[in-house]
Amino acid sequence: MLVVAVTNQKGGVGKTTTAINLASGLAIRGKKTLLVDIDPQGNATSGLGIDNRILKKTVYNVLLNPMEINDALLKTNIENLFILPSNSELVGAEIELITMERREFRLKSALGYLSGFDFIIIDCPPSLGILTLNAIVASKGLLVPMQSEYYSLEGLSRLLKTIKMVKKELNPSLDIMGILLTMFDGRNNLAKCVFEEIKKHFGDKLFSTLIPRNVKLSEAPSHGQPIFTFEPSSRGSLSYQLFVEEFLERSKQYE
User: Fold this and answer.
1) CA-closest candidate to residue 205, choices 245, 166, 178, 244
2) How many domains does the chain have?
3) What distance in Å separates the CA atoms of residue 213 and residue 9, rounded to the nearest whole number?
4) Rounded distance, CA 247 to CA 118, Å?
5) In 112-196, which ranges are E strands?
6) Cα distances (Å, whole numbers) of residue 234 to 22, 44, 62, 213
7) d(CA 149, CA 254)
8) For position 183, which CATH number holds?
9) Has residue 150 got a pLDDT over 70?
10) End-to-end CA distance of the chain
């Protein structure tokens, strides 16, 4: 069971889009997959067609009582894909976790009650707070989506410092699985420069698949679907199909 956190403290870089489509793509390929939505915005939950306003149990309850995780899981409309949903109630967890012992390990403890999954993909909030920390501590690998722009490089530097600290103090087995460039526009010289800069510093950590700017990727969540069922022939769908295959190949090193 490979646990991977999709994280970047910068917002608007395609974290949730990547988490939804990676998890869905793995499930479509026959891998039993769990998508964990640990973002109080709950966009990964609503992006799969689930009305998170009426949910009785979410990741919030699980963080407070890890043994409840199996009761909180929901099936999705994609075969083999389950979700641990989230909603705005999760905002309170940031405060309530402060006083708890081993607060950084609450999600990891909960995932320990699960069995039978091939992959667990965690969609993180755009911050480096206690919720993201829980995701990073629970994970074996980190997937970092980022845009091809200058400020993304600055944000990556801060994230790397956090990863180094977590690896030293809380999760020695943590590894950066890879960096995925999203919203890529090959006509943009800056995008090409950022690509080359990341390639120079991170080498094979950079996924070769580039996710383009694509309106269908933006529209799919409002219809509660991953791109593969919403618009399977779109550029966005074809790109994420390639990425899922590349992800699967890279995941073999964690077996």
Assistant:
1) 178
2) 1
3) 20
4) 13
5) 119-123, 141-147, 175-184
6) 16, 21, 37, 11
7) 30
8) 3.40.50.300
9) no
10) 9
Which residue bears the tokens 């009305």? 51
Residue whose pair of structure tokens reads 């995780």 in the numeric block: 69
Kindly state the tokens that stand for 232: 């399977």
3 state DSSP class of 134:
helix
CA angle 20, 120, 28 (to 5 degrees): 55
At residue 211, φ and ψ (nearest 5 deg) are -90, 120
Entry pTM: 0.95
- Distances from the Cα of 75 to the Cαs of 48, 53, 82, in angstroms? 10, 17, 5
Q: Return the structure tokens found at 187.
A: 């006509």
Least confident of 42-51, 61-70, 178-187, 220-229: 178-187
Can you tell me the distance from the alpha carbon of 92 to that of 146, in angstroms, rounded to the nearest whole number?
Answer: 28
Range of the domain at 132: 2-254
Question: What's the whole-number mean pLDDT along residues 106-134?
Answer: 95
* C-alpha 228: how far from chain center: 17
What span, in angstroms and rounded, lies between the C-alpha atoms of 58 and 163? 27
| Residue 16 tokens, joined | 């949730």
CA 244/CA 15 separation, integer angstroms: 15
